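Q: What would this chain look like folded?
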Amino acid sequence: MRTLAPLASVVVLVAWSCSSSSGDGTTGGATAGQGGGTASSSSASGAGGGGGGGCPDGYGDCDGLAENGCETFLVTHAKHCGSCAQACPTSAHSSATCVDSKCQLTCSDGFLDCNMMAGDGCEAAQLSDPKNCGACGQICATTSCVNGVCKPLELATAQAHPYDLAIDTDYVYWVNEGNNFNDDGTLARVSKKGGKVEVLATALLTASSVAVGGSNVYWTSYGNDLTMSTNGGVFTMAKTGGMITQLAKNQLAAGAIAVDADNAYFVSAGTPAKKYQDGEIRMVPLKGGNVVTLATAQTAPNFIAPGGAYLYWVDLGLESNMYLDSSIWRISLKDPSPKAEKLNDKLPFVNQVAVDATQLFYAQAFLGGIYRMNLAGGMGTLVGSTKLNPFSLDLDPTNVYFGATEPKGTGSIHRVPKAGGKPFQLAAMSAIPYGLAVDDTRVYWADFGPTDASDDGTIYATTK
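A: My prediction, written as C-alpha cells:
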C-alpha cells in the first residue's frame, strides 16, 4: 500500500476588516494593506497557482465570489488540486488526495496500484491476484494466490521424507531419507518444468545430503545404523543415472556435502558418547582418492559452504546448552598447511550458512533472525527479523531466501534484501522446509512431510 507522508500544518492568515464610526454616522471599511481586502487577497498579479490573477501562489478564487477572495488552498484540495479546474479523479478501491498540488491515490486495504494508472485506481487485489500476489509484480508459479501468498507448484509428491535438495540448469535433485531411516533411502530428480519423477538410486543407507557438479550428482549416507557405526560414505553417479561410485567409505555419520570443481567436502557429525564434540570436516577428490581431514574436534558440525579460497561451516554446539553456543568457522583451501579459524561464537542455534563474494549470511533458529557478517569474521548484522524459525538458506545477487517453520508446525518460504529489510512471504506449505535452492526465477525446496511414517513429502517451487 502506498501511503503519504503527513502534511505540515498550514496556517491561513486572514486580514480581518476593521469597522469604525465616522462623525457623520457612515462606516469606514479600511483593512490592513488595502481598502476592502479579503482572505488571502494580494495586490500581486501572479497566476495564483492556476486560481486566477491577483491570488498568491498556492491559492485560487475557485468559487468566483469577490467577498471571500482567494478562498481555496490549491496545494492540498482534492477538488482543486494545483488549479481550480483540476479535480483529483475518484477511482476503484482508492481515495483521492492532493499533495503538493498533485493528485495521488491512497489504496484501500488489500489493493495495490501496480500499473500506476490513476484512471483505474488501485486495480490489483493483492490477496488474490496471482500476478500481484502480496506485492506488485509477484507472479505465482501456479494460478492461485491465497491471502497474499502464492500456492507453490508441486514438482513431486508422495516422497519418503526428502531431506536435502540441489539444482542444475534443468533439474531438481533430492535425497529421501526413507520411512525407516535406515536402508530405504532414494536419490531422485524431476525436471524444473515438472513431469515424471526419475528415481536414480535406491536402498540408500539414510541418505542425508546432496550436491551437483559438472555431469554428476553427489550425496552422503549417514549409515544404516543410528548408533553411529562407521558405514556412512560419499557417493556419486551421472546425473542421468547408472553406476554408483563410492568416493569415501567407512565414514562416521557423513552429513552435509558441498562440491567445487575438484573436491567434495563433507562433515562427520561426531558421536553421542563424546557429545558430538569429535566431529570433523573432511574432503575427498571428485576423481577419487584419499579422504583428507581438514578440521577436528568440531562440535556437531553441519551446513557447509565453499566460497572462494575458503570453506565455511557451522558448529551447532552442545545439546546440553540448547545449542546456544553455536559457532561459525572457515579454513583455507589454498594454504598447504591450513588451520581452522573460528569467525564467530556463542551464537544461539545457527541453523544454516551461505556466502557470496563479500559476505557470509546465517540463520539463527528460535530467535528468528537472518544475519550477515564479513567473510573474515566479526559481529553479525541483522538483515531481517521474523517470529519464525529460519531453517534453510540460499542467496541471489540481491536477496536472501530462507525456509522457516511456523509455531503450529507448518512451514513457509521468505525473501529479504541482503541490505536489510522486512521479510516477504513467498509461499506456505505443510511442514519443515529441508533444503532450499534458487535460480534466476524460482525458489525450490523440499517439504519433509508432516508425519514420520508415510510418504507425504513434497518437492516444491515458487516464483522468487
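The domain at 145-463 is CATH 2.120.10.30 (Neuraminidase).
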